[in-house]
């Protein structure tokens, strides 16, 4: 006969299932998912993200925002004409510059050079500086000494002055020459941040366990160290992106950065300051767009920093 002593009532079975469900561990959440959940609730992140998205779309497809040729000038009729809001989408929103060109069209098309320079320089300095800092922090010893002293040498060169020297070596200064100049001088900050983060991470138990299990140096660096040390670098890179855009505009304003026929906010600011008394609006709009772009990236960096740093939550 079957043994009926081990049978449980429906109530006992339900209680047992509830206990088992409570004892089951929840799925671990990563730092990235926690940061994203935090960012979604921050108005400063949403505002800056929308502004940056608009700027990126503007740089990729400026024709969506204006049909006016930004290089077409008419000195006979449109010389320093003030903004006219009665003709929408005709180039009159921001007036005309000293060469009779639509300021609105040039502001729209000028976003491309600034965004490309900012993103490319940020990616390049993060890769170069991050790799140097990771090697210095992980290996230590003479490797750390050599790479740290090299970083100190480049860190002692002012960014703007160093870029002036590098760009003077180019006969034709394009977007890519500016990217190269900013990258060759600006990687030191990323290297220092990554080095300090790696020195902290390499002492963790999971790195020690990976070494004990015989994992190779490359696997330890890119599988265990880099993912856990990259957060401070991401924060610094996001904030620095706006600074690189401002530096590009400064170089173009000084006449050592981008040159015609490239359209740049720095070039337009330089052109407008010659007639600032007669037409201050020609200076206000490109300078205001530059300030808004830099502010958007700084706001984004602040929001990312607060989300990735558990101490600030």
Automatic annotation (TrEMBL):
InterPro entries: BP-dependent_transpt_permease (IPR050366), MetI-like (IPR000515), MetI-like_sf (IPR035906), OppC_N (IPR025966). It is a multi-pass membrane protein. Residues 111-301 form the ABC transmembrane type-1 domain. The chain crosses the membrane at residues 44-65, 115-138, 150-170, 225-246, 281-304. Residues 1-21 are annotated as: Disordered. This is ABC transporter permease. Gene3D superfamilies: MetI-like. It holds the Pfam family BPD_transp_1. Residues 1-10 have a biased composition (Basic and acidic residues). Belongs to the binding-protein-dependent transport system permease family. It is found in: Cell membrane. The keyword Amino-acid biosynthesis does not apply. The keyword Zinc does not apply. Its main location: membrane. CDD domains: TM_PBP2 (cd06261). Keywords: Cell membrane, Membrane, Transmembrane, Transmembrane helix, Transport.
């Amino acid at each position: 006969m079957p043994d009926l002593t081990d049978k449980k009532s429906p109530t006992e079975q339900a209680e047992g299932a509830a206990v088992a469900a409570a004892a089951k561990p929840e799925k671990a959440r990563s730092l990235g998912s926690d940061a994203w959940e935090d960012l979604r609730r921050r108005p400063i992140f949403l505002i800056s993200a929308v502004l940056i998205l608009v700027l990126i779309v503007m740089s990729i497809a400026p024709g969506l925002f204006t049909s006016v040729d930004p290089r077409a000038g008419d000195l006979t009729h449109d010389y320093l004409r003030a903004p006219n809001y009665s003709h929408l989408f005709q180039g009159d929103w921001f007036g005309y510059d000293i060469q009779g060109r639509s300021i609105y069209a040039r502001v729209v098309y000028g976003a491309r050079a600034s965004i490309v320079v900012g993103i490319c320089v940020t990616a390049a300095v993060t890769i170069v500086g991050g790799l140097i800092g990771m090697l210095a922090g992980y290996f230590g010893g003479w490797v750390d000494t050599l790479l740290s002293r090299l970083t100190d040498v480049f860190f002692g060169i002012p960014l703007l002055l160093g870029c002036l020297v590098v760009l003077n070596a180019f006969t034709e200064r394009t977007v890519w020459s500016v990217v190269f100049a900013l990258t060759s001088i600006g990687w030191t900050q990323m290297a220092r941040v990554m080095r300090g983060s790696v020195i902290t991470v390499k002492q963790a138990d999971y790195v020690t366990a990976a070494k004990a299990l015989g994992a190779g140096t490359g696997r330890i660096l890119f599988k265990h160290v880099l993912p856990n040390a990259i957060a401070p670098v991401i924060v610094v890179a996001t904030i620095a992106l706006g600074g690189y855009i401002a530096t590009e505009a400064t170089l173009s304003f000084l006449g050592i950065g981008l040159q015609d026929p490239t359209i740049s906010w720095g070039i337009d600011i330089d052109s407008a300051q010659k007639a600032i008394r007669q037409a201050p609006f020609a200076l206000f709009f490109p300078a205001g767009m530059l300030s808004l772009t830099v502010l958007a990236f700084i706001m984004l960096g602040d929001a990312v920093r607060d989300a990735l740093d558990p101490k600030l939550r």
